[in-house]
């Protein structure tokens, strides 16, 4: 779930009202999902891991992210496009499943991994540097596949593709 820029554009009151409206809409209908998935590869020391990812490119998609979903299959994920490269802040509000957040530089190298995030937490999870994308996958994925900072991500979003 993207937190970046929310308070920069809106005051707290406007943000809270928008959150209430979005939250009420989400209760009334299931969370929207992207219609298509794209392949994404991560090259690790132990080999290439292939994922099928939804792309979050619009502000609405980035704000909603994986909120309200009850499950996320192994090998699936959501890739957030934060072009151009920038400091990114995420949180887990209204996200019911624990995730690994993989922060990716413009060249496709992994900057940082926030593993086993706490569901529904409002604690800010920072990229810790400039990131162009964030890949959210089910918690435990980074450990399971040996994904580490410095590994390479191959996807059309990144220059190193």
Main features:
single chain; 161 residues; alpha+beta; 7-stranded mixed β-sheet; globular; disordered N terminus
Write the layout of secondary structure elements.
Layout: H1 6-9, H2 12-28, E1 38-44, E2 47-56, H3 59-64, E3 76-90, E4 99-104, E5 110-114, E6 125-138, H4 141-145, E7 152-154
Parallel strand pairs: 2-3
Antiparallel strand pairs: 1-2, 1-7, 3-6, 4-5, 4-6
Task: Provide an overview of this structure.
The longest helix is centred in the N-terminal third of the chain and has 17 residues, at 12-28. This protein has a seven-stranded mixed sheet with strand order 5-4-6-3-2-1-7. 32% of the residues are buried. Helix content is 20%, strand content 37%. The chain is globular and about 35 Å long. It has four helices and seven strands, in the order H-H-E-E-H-E-E-E-E-H-E. Mean pLDDT is 84; it is low at 2-32. It has helices at 6-9, 12-28, 59-64, 141-145; strands spanning 38-44, 47-56, 76-90, 99-104, 110-114, 125-138, 152-154.
Distance N to C terminus: 25 Å
Number of helices: 4
Radius of gyration: 15 Å
Q: Output the helix-strand order.
A: HHEEHEEEEHE
Profile the largest sheet. 7 strands, mixed
**Class by alpha and beta content:** alpha+beta
Mean pLDDT: 84
Strand order of the largest sheet: 5-4-6-3-2-1-7
Condensed summary:
The protein contains 4 helices and 7 strands. The chain has 161 residues and is α+β, with helices and mostly antiparallel strands.
